[in-house]
Amino acid sequence: MDKVVGSAAEAVADIPDGAMLAVGGFGLCGVPVALIDALLEQGASGLTTISNNCGVDDQALGVLLYAGRITRTISSFVGGNKELARLYLSGELSVELTPQGTLAERLRAGGTGIPAFYTPTGVGTMVADGGIPVRYGAEGNVVETSAPKEIREFDGRQYVLETALSADFGLVRAAVGDRHGNLVFHESARNFNPLAGMAGRVTIAEVEELVEPGGIRPEDVHLPGVFVDRVVVVGPEGKRIEKRTTRPRPSAAPLAAAGEEATVEGVN
Questions:
Q1: Reduced to 3 states, what is the DSSP secondary structure of residue 93?
Q2: Which domains occur in the chain, in start order?
Q3: Which long-range contacts link 96-101 to residues 24+ away (Cβ below 8 Å)?
Q4: Alpha helix (H) ranges present in the chain?
Q5: What value does the mean pLDDT take over residues 220-246?
Q6: Which DSSP category does 114 fall into?
Q7: Which of 1, 27, 30, 235 has the smallest C-beta neighbourhood within 10 Å, fewest atoms?
């Protein structure tokens, strides 16, 4: 029952070329960066990734993109990554775009054994009708597009059929985990992480803090250990900021001079 392994390198050692990975995180929040960096060193290539976004330039999954290790991605957002755009438009990367909520539900369905489901999202658009460029040729021409999907009417409303997603490996990052693999995610890191963990046939979790079994109350568990196969302790280091914006701190002098009414308005 003890699922703890000694290092991130050991945890990802058996991920082969051509593997499909479900990867948690949103932007750079909750991304399993230690596992991704270990996979970069490990050398697996020809990877397919399922994630909300495929990293940003040279960070998170972006490091695998820059190294040419990812050949296909299933994502809901691919902006903010110049290397992804270059690879996509030059024919070196296939991209399957999926609405964000649909992507989350496809992962959840894969983790619970539901093969497909109907959703109104995308009806009347290229999401349902097909034609979204999936792969470009070297000369910039579209060589593969998304296929049309089944449409069915329920109670007078149209719905599109979406299929479940599962992966060979799930890579997630949690704030707290125990030796049995039960995980707790911190605030907004509880985004795609539980879903990616559910969808992986083998799920690997990097955790900031390891506690003994019983150290997490059952009602606080976000992803039960039944879904998790390996746990590696990485500590709180490695968190990164996607976009840092700052502004000058306002001076307190004008506020004080303006009197009590301005003070209350400014604070509230």
A1: coil
A2: 8-115+164-233 (3.40.1080.10)
A3: 96/72, 96/134, 96/146, 97/127, 97/132, 97/146, 98/74, 98/127, 99/127, 100/52, 100/76
A4: 8-11, 33-42, 62-66, 82-89, 100-112, 126-129, 193-199, 252-257, 260-267
A5: 84
A6: -
A7: 1
